[in-house]
Design a protein that fits this description.
Elements lengths: L2 H5 L17 E10 L12 H15 L10 E5 L5 H9 L5 H5 L5 E5 L4 E5 L5 E8 L3 H16 L6 E2 L3 E2 L11 E8 L1 H5 L3 H9 L3 E4 L12 E6 L7 H29 L1 H17 L5 H16 L10 H8 L2 H8 L5 H20 L1
Antiparallel strand pairs: 1-5, 1-8, 2-3, 3-4, 4-5, 6-7, 8-10, 9-10
Helix pairs in contact: 3-12, 9-10, 10-11
Length: about 350
């Protein structure tokens, strides 16, 4: 494997699978924060310490395969160009923090990109497992197995009372961040999300945009994750999140049904107008593209639009991000140039589906 393997395609192999409830839940993610014992946290570590951490993790992995994950490739961030790092962020394989702020970071990726182990981000290790659809329990199981596998080879910073020690106090304890990416257009259209989000926050969960903290929920795609990591077991944290997600799935389906029954013509008009924009625009900004893609995906899920793959939203939401557009063009582009290329790529993708 090489860098080209990970940045040449917009959609990761695992994203092509159909998971449970994938009409609403796009993906499930488990991330575990871990630190090596007797080493400064990455933000305070010297170059030598950081390089030692990378070497230790690399040696722990070696050339071994782990179960269905296969072999891992390690990429040093200081050897990557800014555009390549941006593409990895857009594919959710590394965090913006690792790409922009980590001085001596690296990432270990498996071939289908379902596992990403970030090294020297805010913590020495951030083990991330990604599954299609609503598969939090499966993601937790795999993350736990990978965690045990690594812990056999390196010593973690752990306190009997506090649990796993992390750079940020909000991660102390289990070090667990569980999250799901959900497409909730009907709840947005019916203006229910404005009251749902505060209710979710009161349950110790947080609602963010597609790229996590500080990002806007474009295209009606929301990331729901836990905030509490201390005082609960990993299983309890995941179960709490699962309960809320199940309720959101039920509410979204009810809202979709109500729209079809009460505003059928208006809904279909919205869907086909958005389809027309995607199929014919010569210039389109990312926010408008995301909204139109959301409408078309809703139309596909409701059977209003036939013959187009459901994965078109997942693929084009990533393919039309600034990094990928410039990767595709093989040159740096200004905002207007990106908007023109975005429209071209979307038209070509829609035409391919219609062929």
């Amino acid at each position: 494997m090489s860098l080209e393997h990970f940045i040449s395609e917009a959609i990761s192999p695992w994203m092509k699978e159909e998971g449970p409830d994938s009409d609403i839940v796009l993906s499930s993610r488990i991330r575990l924060a871990r630190n090596l014992e007797n080493y400064n946290f990455p933000d305070f570590a010297s170059k030598e310490e950081s390089e030692t951490v990378i070497r230790k993790v690399h040696e722990a992995n070696g050339d071994q395969e782990y179960g269905n994950c296969g072999k891992f490739e390690i990429l040093s961030l200081d050897q990557l160009k800014p555009l390549a790092k941006r593409v990895l962020v857009e594919k959710h394989l590394i965090s913006p923090h690792l790409a922009e702020q980590s001085k001596y970071g690296a990432v270990m990726l498996n071939e289908d990109e379902s596992v990403s182990i970030m090294i020297n981000e805010e913590d020495h290790l951030r083990i991330q497992c990604l599954f299609a659809g609503f598969q939090l329990k499966e993601a937790l199981k795999l993350a736990g197995e990978l965690d045990d596998w690594l812990e056999e080879k390196v010593d973690y910073a752990f306190d009997e009372e506090r649990g796993y020690l992390t750079s940020c106090p909000t991660n102390v304890g289990t070090g667990l961040r569980a999250s799901v990416m959900m497409h909730l257009p009907a709840l947005v259209i019916t203006k229910q999300m404005s009251r749902i989000i505060p209710a979710i926050n009161q349950l110790g969960l947080v609602v963010r945009g597609i790229y996590g903290e500080g990002t806007e929920a474009q295209g009606n795609v929301f990331q729901i994750s836990n905030q509490i990591t201390l005082g609960k077991s990993e299983e309890d944290i995941v179960e709490d999140l699962r309960g809320v997600v199940l309720q959101l799935i039920q509410q979204e389906r009810a809202a979709r049904n109500n729209l079809q029954q009460g505003l059928k013509i208006q809904l279909e008009d919205r869907i086909f107008r958005s389809y027309g924009v995607l199929a014919n625009s010569r210039i389109i900004q990312s926010k408008e593209a995301a909204q139109c893609l959301s409408d078309v995906r809703l139309g596909i899920d409701l059977g209003v639009i036939q013959g187009i793959s459901r994965s078109i939203l997942n693929e084009l939401m990533i393919l039309t991000q600034p990094g990928f557009l410039q990767q595709y063009a093989n040159e740096m582009l200004g905002p207007d140039e990106r908007d023109i290329l975005r429209a071209t790529l979307i038209r070509e993708r829609v035409e391919l589906e219609e062929a």
